[in-house]
Design the sequence.
């Protein structure tokens, strides 16, 4: 990579990898794959799974934000 650290590194939710990225590339942004977040979200949302308004806002947050 021309002796330059990546600006952003995208991975799944593997905690050991997150720690290594933090140590090796302290100035890089670590982000999670959108697919991983979407796949695992419903198991963490509990009662919000039945809330249509929440799903609209969640989708907007996931797909409409750049930060």
Sequence:
């Amino acid at each position: 990579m021309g002796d330059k650290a990546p600006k952003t590194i995208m991975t799944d939710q593997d905690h050991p990898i997150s720690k290594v990225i933090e140590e090796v590339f302290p100035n890089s942004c670590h982000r999670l794959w959108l697919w991983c977040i979407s796949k695992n979200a419903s198991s963490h949302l509990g009662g919000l799974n039945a809330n249509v308004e929440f799903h609209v806002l969640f989708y907007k947050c996931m797909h409409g934000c750049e930060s």
Q: What stands out?
A: The chain has one domain: 8-64. The mean pLDDT is 87. Residues 1 and 15 are 24 Å apart (CA to CA). Residues 8-64 form one domain.
